[in-house]
Design a protein that fits this description.
Helices cover 18% and strands 22% of the residues. Strand 2 and strand 3 form a beta hairpin. A 9-stranded mixed beta sheet has the order 3-2-1-9-5-6-7-8-4. The protein is an alpha+beta fold and 200 residues long. It has 4 helices and 9 strands, in the order E-E-E-E-H-E-E-H-E-E-H-E-H. It is globular, with a radius of gyration of 17 Å.
Length: 200
């Protein structure tokens, strides 16, 4: 059984949770990946779930579908104006081991962290272009996540700080391990979360 490192970052898709534990601080926040998932507070008015279901894929595959959890599910025509072919939000980031490589404050609305997969993830999902179109960690917008890991803006800033980034200043070569799980029971992770909860 793998014992998670207290210096790495962990994302659990089904729990919508991102966790990092350093020596003196535990970072534990809600996060989302794929299927147009987002926070309930962003889902009102024209962005309400029943309207988003139509906006994203004409009602066939909305964010509550089982298919939205398929990491091989591609984004089709992310045209927010309702033109073009039928749309669908892509699936979540594939599970496995990743590396947080860079922090770019100019990317997306609040800055973003670039994620690169290890060889095993690339082998299982070889059809994806991880280098030209990398997965990111960035702020959650009104359209939710189309595959990247997203957090509320205030939580994202705290994550940047927890990883040692100076907000607003680009940083390359971070080399921070990221493990992605679908379920918290994988590799004893549930027990690890319990230990973090009692030690925080």
């Amino acid at each position: 059984m793998t014992t998670p490192s207290r210096s790495a970052v962990y994302f659990i898709a089904l729990e919508e949770l991102i966790v990092r534990s350093a020596e003196k601080e535990v970072f534990r926040r809600r996060a989302y990946s794929g299927g147009a998932r987002t926070t309930p507070g962003n889902r009102t008015g024209k962005n309400a779930p029943e309207k988003l279901a139509v906006a994203y894929s004409k009602g066939s595959h909305h964010d509550r579908s089982i298919l939205s959890f398929n990491p091989d599910r591609a984004t089709i025509d992310p045209d927010y104006k309702g033109k073009g072919t039928a749309r669908q939000a892509g699936g979540p980031i594939p599970p496995g081991r990743w590396t947080i490589t860079d922090y770019d404050p100019s990317r997306k609305s609040k800055g973003a962290l670039t994620l690169m997969p290890d060889a095993s993830v690339r082998a299982l999902h070889g059809s994806r272009d991880f280098d030209g179109y990398p997965f990111l960690i960035h702020a959650t917008g009104k359209w939710g996540s189309w595959g990247c890991i997203t957090l509320q803006s205030s939580d994202l800033i705290r994550l940047f700080e927890a990883l040692g980034c100076t907000v607003g200043t680009a940083s390359k070569g971070l080399n921070i391990p990221l493990s992605v799980y679908f379920h918290p029971a994988a590799d004893g992770f549930a027990e690890y979360l319990d230990r973090l909860a009692t030690s925080a």
